[in-house]
Specification:
This protein is mostly helical and about 230 residues long. It has eleven helices and two strands; from the N terminus they run αααααββαααααα. The protein has a two-stranded antiparallel ribbon with strand order 1-2.
């Protein structure tokens, strides 16, 4: 089942970040909100200009981009973010792009997104060659481009949820992921950006009721099998 068929609102085929079922199962334990690291304001300062450039370039709300960044790598503080691949041996970098789901990987599709915006003169983890999944600017610009391609805009609404769902992949863990990502972004929009704040359970429940539950109802064995076939075609 193509993503556009799931909602019926767009006749498009979504770009899925993690099309491998095996890889997604390994990733499920990463769909959590808590981090053991207290992230400092100084650490975050280099990301704000990048978020702003990504928003202005691709028209995606920077809070959604930042929430993906938070969900994927705790704002790049998770171990091993700047080298190698994750425990599923598929994804790497601050935004955890899949580099193995080829022959044209998700990363390959959006790797050159950095060319559309002006690179800041200084930021941490700038690589010597581009594009690189380990370069903060390259990775965040690519993530914004991917979210935009999957329908996200400035509004933190159903389209933003759909794009987050696509970013993870189409299964129950992907629903949880999208619920959490969008709930966090909405909370930030209402109360201000908070680096170390946890998720608001009431907001997660509200997002899940609006967007997650209808999708979960479609994830019958037949629907899941159909989704898996679609992934293999991406």
């Amino acid at each position: 089942m193509a993503h556009g068929e799931r909602r019926g609102s767009r006749s498009r085929v979504a770009i899925l970040a993690r099309p491998s079922v095996v890889q997604q199962r390994a990733e499920e334990r990463g769909v959590v909100d808590a981090t053991q690291t207290d992230i400092s304001r100084a650490w975050m300062e280099g990301f704000y200009p990048i978020y702003a450039i990504a928003q202005s370039t691709f028209g995606v709300n920077w809070l959604l981009i930042a929430s993906i960044h938070r969900q994927e790598s705790a704002f790049s503080t998770a171990p091993g973010i700047y080298h190698g691949l994750n425990f599923a041996d598929c994804c790497g970098g601050p935004m955890q792009f899949n580099v193995t789901n080829g022959p044209v990987s998700t990363w390959d599709l959006v790797a050159d997104s950095y060319k559309y915006g002006k690179r800041p003169a200084h930021y941490d983890h700038m690589t010597s060659t581009h594009p690189s999944i380990y370069d903060d600017f390259d990775a965040i610009m690519a993530a914004a481009h991917l979210l935009s391609a999957d329908g996200a805009e400035y509004a933190l609404n159903e389209s933003a949820w759909d794009a987050a769902y696509d970013y993870y992949g189409h299964d129950a863990a992907g629903v949880t992921y999208a619920d959490q990502v969008l709930a966090r972004a909405i909370s930030w929009s209402q109360h201000g950006f908070c680096i170390n704040c946890g998720l608001e359970p009431a907001m997660v429940e509200a997002v899940q009721a609006a967007y997650g539950v209808p999708v979960l109802r479609l994830l019958s064995p037949e629907a899941t099998t159909s989704i898996s076939h679609t992934r293999g075609q991406g």
